[in-house]
UniProtKB/TrEMBL annotation:
Coiled coil: none annotated. It holds the Pfam family MecA. This is Genetic competence negative regulator. Belongs to the MecA family. NCBIfam families: PRK02899.1.
Amino acid sequence: MKMERLGQDKIRIFLTFDDLSERGIPKDDMLKETYKLRELFIEMMDQAYSELGFDPSGPLAVEVFSMPAQGMVVIVTSTSMEFYQSHEDALEDSDAEEIYAMEVMLEQSDIITFVFEDFEDVIRVSKIIHPIANDGGALYKYKDKWILQFEQMDLEESQFQNLIAVLSEYGEVSSITQAVLQEYGHTVMQSEAVKQLCNYF
């Protein structure tokens, strides 16, 4: 479980599928309202307080992004008192633990993102995956690292798993969003990165 502060009142938490499975949360059920997810959220808030000094008391807005191959990204924002007052009646009927789950927005992303330390690794992985991902991929440079990102691809399950396995061998899965890369990173190849890397190198 990795977490970072995005602002004074906002944090981002990245959970891999391994993090979820260790807590008994299966991949297919990770966005369902279950007791285990509530326990996990309380654990995350405790860790956020101890590691980042993020105070989870009061009303929170929670955004949950499910991503294939990566896991789950949770963005937690401490909301205003106006939000609290507008939901005051509902809060009075809630248990203390349930206050965390006041406003939850669930989104799913089909974007796959991997980060590489060395450009040579990006070239190597591109040469291996080009038979199944030749028309895909965008390449970014961000914080002195190389980011290879794929949008939704029409692949069979076995091909998809092979793609993830190869990418994982050379790089690490990342929770960096496309919006962050486009705004703060440098776009090296906007599309067909795999094909271009194979052609040029």
